[in-house]
Design goal:
Distance between the termini: 64 Å
Radius of gyration: 20 Å
Helix content: 25-40%
Strand order of the largest sheet: 3-2-4-1-5
Number of strands: 13
Low-confidence stretches: 1-7
Number of domains: 2
CATH class of the largest domain: Alpha Beta
Strand content: 15-25%
Shape: elongated
Mean pLDDT: 93
Structural class: alpha/beta
CATH topology of the largest domain: Methyltransferase, Cobalt-precorrin-4 Transmethylase, Domain 2
Largest sheet: 5 strands, parallel
Length: 251
């Protein structure tokens, strides 16, 4: 029988910090962050992890996900305890996929990876609104940085044709100013103008706002990267008090 190794590489942790206040960070994630030697991530998320003795924070920009993942993997491979942080849930348009992409390199084959869940933006916007994702729903990003707009159009039509509630992440940015209007036009090919739309902006922060409108009345110029959109299905409803919900069944 072979002896047990004296040294085991600790798992590389990928954690979601939730989309807003620290109270939305799960106890599991808080405990993990309290014990690691390194935190790696996009600067605004890294800055949410308090500096303490024995912790090194590695902050980087917003478009270097794979480089960031390789740094974390290198640190973990060397025996350091590392957490890669994302806002929301790391598995939803977050760092989890980027780390697994970088980890395909066989030099990281011995680095175990563990993903810890976090509250996602779609969950908290839906909770603020009521129960708009109580039935079947889809989640998409309008960012065409990693996929062509033609594919986004194809998927928008498929979701609209399937009559699913649609959560839209990354609807607009300073360099992407027309895609909300383009998406609205595509969805209106399949959905009534009366379709319920929820706009959640900065949910969980002091400046949060929640707007309920319709697909026809949606104003694309009012949407930015701080927003998450929920496009209702044909049976999504608004209560007398303005709350939005989708039945678990099809009318």
């Amino acid at each position: 029988m072979q002896p047990k190794p004296d040294f085991l590489v600790p798992p590389l942790l990928i954690v979601g910090l939730g989309p807003g206040p620290d109270s939305w960070i799960t106890p599991e994630v808080s405990e993990a962050l309290a014990g690691v030697q390194h935190v790696v991530g996009y600067a605004p998320y890294v800055n949410r992890v308090p500096q303490r003795e024995g912790l090194t924070r590695h902050a980087s920009g917003n478009t270097v996900e794979v480089d960031r993942a390789r740094l974390a993997l290198d640190l973990a491979k060397s025996g350091q305890s590392v957490a890669v942080v994302s806002g929301g849930d790391a598995g939803i348009f977050g760092m989890a996929a980027a780390v697994f992409e970088a980890a395909e390199d066989e030099e990281y084959a011995e680095v175990p990876i563990r993903v810890l869940p976090g509250l996602s933006a779609v969950q908290v916007v839906a909770a603020r609104a009521g129960a708009p994702i109580g039935g079947d729903f889809a989640v998409m990003s309008l960012s065409d940085r990693l996929k062509p707009w033609s594919l986004i159009e194809q998927r928008l039509r498929a979701v609209a044709g399937a009559d699913l509630v649609l959560a839209i992440y990354n609807p607009a940015s300073r360099s992407r100013t027309t895609q909300v209007a383009d998406a609205q036009a595509i969805l209106l090919e399949h959905r009534s103008g009366d379709t319920v739309v929820v706009i959640g902006r900065d949910i969980g922060r002091t400046e949060e706002s929640l707007t309920v409108t319709t697909l026809a009345e949606l104003e694309p110029d009012s949407i930015d990267m701080k927003c998450l959109l929920l496009i209702g299905a044909s049976n999504t409803r608004v209560t007398a008090t303005g709350q939005v919900w989708t039945p678990r069944f099809t009318d």
